Amino acid sequence: MKTISILFSLLVPAGLLAQNQNLNPRAFEALCQHFHTYVDEGVLPGTLIYIEKEGVLNKDVYGFQDIARGIPMSESSIFRWASMTKPITATAIMMLVEAGKLQLDDAVSLYLPEVTNMSVYQGDSRVGNIMTIRHLLSHTSGITSGFDRSAAGQAAAKQLAQARVHNLKELVAAVCSTQLAFEPGKGWAYGYSNDLLACIIERVSGMPVEQFFKQHIFEPLEMKHTAFQVKEVDALTSVYAPNEAGELLAVETAANSRYVNGQNFARGNGGLAGPASDYLNFCRMLLKGGTFRGRRLLSPESVRAMMHNEVGEEWLPLKILNTSLTGQGYGLGLGVLMPDAPFGHAGDVFWPGALYTYFFINTQQQTIGIFMTQMRDMSRMSMMGEFHDLATKACEEQTKR
Questions:
Q1: What is the spatial distance between Cα 316 and Cα 224, in angstroms, rounded to a whole number?
Q2: How far is CA 177 from CA 116, 124, 381, in A?
Q3: Residues of the domain holding 296
Q4: Is residue 83 assigned to a domain?
Q5: Is 309 within 8 Å of 331 (Cβ atoms)?
Q6: Using CA atoms, how far apart are residues 33 and 27, in angstroms rounded to an integer?
Q7: CATH of the domain at 273
Q8: What is the pLDDT of residues 147-190, one digit of tens each?
Q9: Cβ(87)–Cβ(282) under 8 Å?
C-alpha cells in the first residue's frame, strides 16, 4: 500500500511537506490547519489525522501526547477509543450470526434471561414487545443511560452510579435492574445495549469477550496493539480537560489510568484502546465488504446490514444528551448519515468516542477518515462534525477543486 506521510513540526505552523493527487490539496491543508489552530491556541493537546482514499493514506500528526512530559503525538500513540468499541462488538455479533450461533431477531432472553425482569419506566410492569439482538445493535432496545436526558435515562444513570461494578457480569446485572425508556422497537436511546451484546458473545461462544475479539478480529486484522489493558504504557496518550480559565489540565495520565492498573474490564460499550493505525485496519475491512488482505471476516451482506439505517423516521433526529443529531441514523453498530446531514455524504457510516476519537467510511468514494486526540469535554464534541465536513471536502475529485 502506498503511503504519503505529512508530518508537521510540533506546534509550529508549516506548509504541507507532500501532497497526494487523489485529494484536494487546498482542502486537505485547510483541514490540517483547522486542527493545528486548536492545538496552537491550547484548545486541544495534539491531533492525529488519517485520510485514506482508494488505498492511498495521507497523515497529519501534530502537538503532544503528553504536554507536561513533552512527549510528541505520534502514530504509535495509543488512544482510548471509548464508544468506537461499539462497531467492533457489532462485528463480533455478526460473526456469530454468520456462524449460525444466533439470529438477529432472536429474543435477548434466550441468552440473557435477566432481561425478562425489566419494565418500562413509569409504565406497566410487563414489557409487551420482545427485545431482540437487532434492538440491542441499533439502540432501539429501550435500555438507556445518562446520555439520554429523559427521566428514564437520568433515573437509570443515578441507579447505576450507586452500583458497585467490577466486571462485565456485574455491569449487565446492574443494567438489567434498571427500567427501559420505552418498549423495545419503539424509540432510540443511547444506552448500555452493547454491554449486553458482549455478555451474549461470551455465553454463545464460551470465550471471554476480550479473547473472542483478539482471536476473531484483532489477530486477522493485525491490530497488534489493541486491548482493554495497555501494555505499552509510554505510548498511552494523556486525557485533558479545560479548567474554568480554559487551560488544559491532564485528568488522566498513564500513571493513574485504569487502562494500565487493571481496573478497565472488558465490555462491549467502550473500553478498548489502541493506535489509530489499528482502527484503520478495522475500517479497511468494513470498506472492503468484510475482507482484509485476503482474509474474510464478514460477508458483504453482513457489512451492508450494519451500514443500513434501522431507526424509523418517527424517532429522528436522534438525541444524545441535549444535542439533536440532525441527519444521523443508526444501523447495526454504526451511525449512518441521512440525506439531510449537515456534513459528509448520505450513506457515510461513522461513530465518535466520548474522548474525541472519530471515524467515518464512505464506500462510494472508497474513503476512510480517522481523527484522534484525548479530551474530556462534551461541550466541544461538534469538532467531530467539523472533521467529517473538512475531510469530505479534502476527498473531492480534482474536477471539483
A1: 38
A2: 10, 16, 31
A3: 78-228+265-333
A4: yes
A5: yes
A6: 10
A7: 3.40.710.10
A8: 999 999 999 999 999 999 999 999 999 999 999 999 999 999 99
A9: yes
Estimate the crossing angle of helix 276-287 against helix 86-98, to 10 degrees: 40
Q: Are strands 349-353 and 79-80 parallel, antiparallel or unpaired?
A: unpaired
Q: Cα separation of 66 and 273, whole Å?
A: 16
Report strand pairing: 273-274 vs 79-80.
antiparallel
Is there a domain that residue 68 lies in?
Answer: no
CB atoms within 10 A of CB 42: 13
Averaged pLDDT for residues 344-370: 98
pLDDT in tens, 93-130: 999 999 999 999 999 999 999 999 999 998 655 667 89
Q: Which three cell numbers stand for residue 316?
A: 429522528
In a domain, 358, yes or no: no
Task: Read off the pTM.
Answer: 0.94
Nearest to 240 by CA among 104, 80, 51, 22: 80
Count of domains observed in the chain? 1
Q: What angle do CA 374, 212, 350 make, to 5 degrees?
A: 40
**Which single residue is written with the C-alpha cell 486491548?**
227
Residue 105 falls inside a structural domain:
yes
Which three three-digit cell numbers place residue 313?
423516521
